[in-house]
Amino acid sequence: MKKKWTLFVLISVFVLALAACQQGDQKAASQKPTEQKKTEQKITDPKQLFTTAYKNTQAAKTFDVSADIDINVDPSSIKDEDKEFVEVINNAKLKADVKGNTETKQYEVVLKSKFSYQGLSMDINLPVYIDENKQHCYVKVDSMIKSFGFVLNAKGINLESVKDKYLEVPIEYDQQITSQKTEEVKQKTLETLGKIDIPKDNFKKEELTDKEKQQGAAHKITLSFSDENFKALFINFVNVLGEAMNKPIKDNKMNQLKDGLKKINFKKMNFTATIDDKNAFKNFNTDILVNVGQFEKDNFSGDIGFKLSTTYKNVNGDITFKYKPKENQIVTQAELNKLLMQRKYN
Questions:
Q1: pLDDT tens per residue, range 169-197
Q2: In b/e form, how buried is each residue of 142-154, taking b as 16+ CB within 10 angstroms?
Q3: Residue 117 — φ and ψ, nearest 5°?
Q4: What are the CA-CA distances from residue 104 to residues 123, 176, 179 (Å)?
């Protein structure tokens, strides 16, 4: 299913980025802060409310968000030997709590999930601290052992010995991709997205519930795409980006992409955002349901559903990293191996 998932992820990222780069907001982006703030307070157009909130939220210096993820794969076309695996995926509870400071390039991610299989369950609660300046991330060791102890062959380890330890792991970068090249691609992509206009009719203003009002929401906007509508936008984007990069898409590659899209039917592609009076997101929900036909050498065909519910608990406010390790808490892989081996045989 590699081709399907690659195209699926690419499409999801494209839609979110496209929503943020609409031409209607270029004027607002170029205004001075005080002028922009006054303008944003008067925004009533659903499209502009949505795109402005997206930009404001993505430009935040600090953030604290929580995301719940739900994946559902239609088991009717799955081989019998794979149905148990699909059942595990469908019943899984996935969650991520993320804090970040984009100025100091420090982030904290706590991955939480629960899987069940034939009466057995596995709970994962894994804090990871990331320091991009040092190009390292730090994984809380006792949580790692509790979550993946059976994989690490860590049975019998005294968790007290590693309670406050963090495993230092280097962040691997592709040395062939320079920062200059990355920035060039990013800039060209943003320019291209800005040239592709989502029709205003795709955006709708909805009534807020009492609960959403209590949470501080001032607006609720939905963004939806039909199958035909979205595919046309996506093909246009690929063509324009290729020209912008001076690498026009060859006919055979474009035909392959179009053939792949023919085997995907976007039965549902909905995005719902609640927005506060400062034009930043409070909640952002993604609901995608696609029906995929059979690809070459791929036995699966059926529905794949993806739901992502994101709550913005704090945007541009003070944040505290709970899992930022001190120097004396950090261990290398070799030091951790030695520590675990000593405990294993005592």
A1: 998 755 554 455 556 666 777 677 667 77
A2: bbbbebeeeeeeb
A3: -155, 115
A4: 32, 25, 18
Helix axes 179-195, 227-244, angle to 10 degrees: 130
126 phi and psi angles, rounded to 5 deg: -125, 105
Give all strands of the β-sheet with 62-73 in edge-to-edge order: 203-206, 219-224, 264-275, 281-292, 302-315, 62-73, 93-101, 106-117, 120-131, 136-140, 166-170, 330-331
Decide: 82 and 338 in contact? Cβ < 8 Å.
no
Closest by CA to 259, choosing from 300, 294, 230, is 294
Per-residue confidence band for 300, with pLDDT thresholds at 50, 70 and 90: low
DSSP state of 10: H
CA 59, CA 104: separation in Å to the nearest integer?
14
CA angle 253, 257, 258 (to 5 degrees): 115
Most confidently predicted of 11-20, 70-79, 107-116:
107-116
Beta strands in the chain (DSSP E): 62-73, 93-101, 106-117, 120-131, 136-140, 166-170, 203-206, 219-224, 264-275, 281-292, 302-315, 330-331
Closest CA to 112 of 163, 147, 140: 147
Kindly write down the DSSP assignment for every residue of 129-165, as one continuous string. Answer: EEETTTTEEEEEHHHHHHHHHHHHT-TT--GGGGTT-
Lookup result for tokens 């994962």 = 124
Higher-confidence residue of 57 and 157: namely: 57
* 277: nearest Cα among 1, 34, 53: 53
pLDDT digits 0-9 by tens, 4-47: 445 555 555 565 566 556 544 444 444 444 444 544 457 889 99
Report how far residue 62's alpha carbon sits from residue 316's, in angstroms, rounded to the nearest whole number. 5
Q: What is the dihedral of CA 247, 8, 255, 174, to 10 degrees?
A: 30
Instruction: Please state, as a whole number, how many other Cβ atoms lie within 10 Å of the Cβ of residue 99.
Output: 22
How confident is residue 216, by pLDDT bands cut at 50, 70 and 90?
very high
Cα distances from 245 to residues 192, 233, 345, in angstroms, run 10, 18, 59
Q: 189 exposed, middle or buried (CB, 10 Å; 0-12, 13-18, 19+)?
A: middle
Rounded mean pLDDT, 209-233: 93
